[in-house]
């Protein structure tokens, strides 16, 4: 029963947690019994209340929140869903995913995306509560107290424990790929997601630094991947506050001032001791290395848009075949020839003779021009050219070349960032 599973956050199969060698030796030496024994009851009510009150004041670090949101929002991302979310097409998964896996093999969840659905809202909250509980138990056992905020590792450990019987894993996948053991499947996902967060940590810190400075660029979020789109909403709001702040936002946070925003949720995220991946948000100082990484990553993310006699197509690396994004065979554009393509202020435009239109809104021409657009373009770190019924893409500094053969003549092409092609 999915509803029951959603309310029972932690279900443990004890067969997966057997006693170790030393445990068995102690059992042997102490002449203990494996039976459950009810000890004399002790009233620990006051202790429990004190612990609960202490835990109420605990806060999650920003990377902990990012991990929690990843389990809720990123695992819900679906490139093929009309809404962009798995949760609205879950009855058609994994059937609708056939063929998509190869296209998204560069994404961390590309090969398992079809077999995992996102955590529920109840689980989203439960991960945080369990992470706090695990932190408290760990500190009690080690008899040490730390000022570190519970973060992504604690959230992922909570996910690792609760995911096996939460109903988010496809049972046929668990059976065929993980010997029917959901704990093995959960551990596999845990390692994948942990690796993804750690790989993207520097990119995320750089994006937060720029947002706090009021200099956030749209591309900084897009470089993370489509499944991270939800992060832009948070960063954009921070960037907006920073730009309207009378003094540097970081200084206001250090001073503990009330931020100039009506977004109450944001005030609870930006406070003097807040951290992200082990660094205080007021001390973030990304170096030139991460800026170059972002630049290089953006360069490798470019694709192409090209026109033939019957429409406009998009292609980017790992897409099995070009995808049509505009049809020339219907309406007022029927039998017209596209003579040029270009990306203008983030929008893909095309020309038919003297008129230039926007692909997303082609009802009226944007401008009228006598000049045709170029049929040769630079796409990231590649040179792209068109020859009759084929397009070639050559990587700079290498002999590597990709060739796309077509049935129709190419009439125009343009270099477009992959993330924008996917939004068309």
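-> sequence recovered:
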């Amino acid at each position: 029963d999915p509803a029951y599973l959603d309310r029972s956050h932690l279900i443990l199969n004890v067969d997966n947690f057997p006693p170790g060698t030393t445990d068995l030796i102690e059992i042997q030496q102490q002449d203990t019994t494996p039976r459950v024994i009810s000890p004399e009851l002790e009233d620990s009510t006051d202790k429990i209340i004190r612990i609960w009150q202490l835990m109420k004041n605990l806060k999650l670090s920003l990377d902990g929140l990012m991990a929690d949101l990843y389990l809720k929002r990123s695992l819900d991302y679906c490139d093929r869903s009309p809404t962009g979310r798995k949760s609205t097409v879950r009855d058609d998964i994994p059937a609708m995913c056939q063929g998509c896996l190869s296209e998204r093999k560069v994404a961390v969840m590309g090969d398992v995306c079809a077999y995992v659905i996102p955590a529920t809202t109840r689980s989203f909250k439960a991960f945080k509560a369990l992470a706090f509980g695990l932190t408290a138990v760990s500190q009690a056992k080690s008899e040490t107290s730390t000022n570190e905020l519970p973060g992504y590792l604690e959230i992922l450990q909570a996910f690792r424990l609760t995911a096996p019987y939460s109903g988010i894993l496809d049972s046929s996948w668990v059976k065929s790929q993980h010997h029917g053991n959901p704990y093995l499947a959960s551990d596999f996902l845990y390692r994948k997601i942990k690796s993804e967060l750690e790989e993207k940590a520097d990119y995320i810190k750089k994006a937060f630094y720029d947002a706090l400075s009021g200099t956030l660029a749209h591309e900084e979020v897009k470089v993370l991947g489509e499944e991270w789109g939800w992060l832009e909403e948070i960063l954009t709001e921070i960037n907006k506050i920073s730009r309207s702040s009378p003094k540097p936002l970081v200084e206001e946070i250090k001073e503990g001032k009330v931020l100039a925003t009506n977004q109450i949720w944001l005030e609870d995220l930006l406070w003097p001791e807040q951290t992200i991946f082990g660094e205080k948000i007021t001390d973030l100082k990304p170096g030139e290395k991460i800026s170059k990484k972002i630049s290089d990553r953006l360069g490798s993310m470019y694709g192409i848009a090209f026109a033939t006699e019957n429409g406009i197509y998009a292609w980017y690396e790992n897409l099995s075949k070009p995808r049509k994004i505009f049809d020339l065979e219907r309406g007022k554009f029927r039998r017209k020839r596209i003579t040029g393509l270009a990306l203008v202020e983030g929008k893909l435009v095309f020309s038919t003779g003297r008129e230039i239109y926007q692909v997303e809104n082609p009802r009226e021409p944007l401008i009228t021009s006598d000049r045709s657009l170029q049929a040769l373009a630079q796409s990231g770190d590649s040179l792209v050219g068109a020859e009759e019924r084929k397009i070639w893409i050559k990587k700079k500094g290498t002999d590597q070349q990709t060739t796309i053969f077509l049935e129709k003549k190419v009439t125009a092409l343009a270099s477009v960032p992959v993330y924008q092609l996917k939004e068309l």
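The first helix runs from residue 2 to 7.
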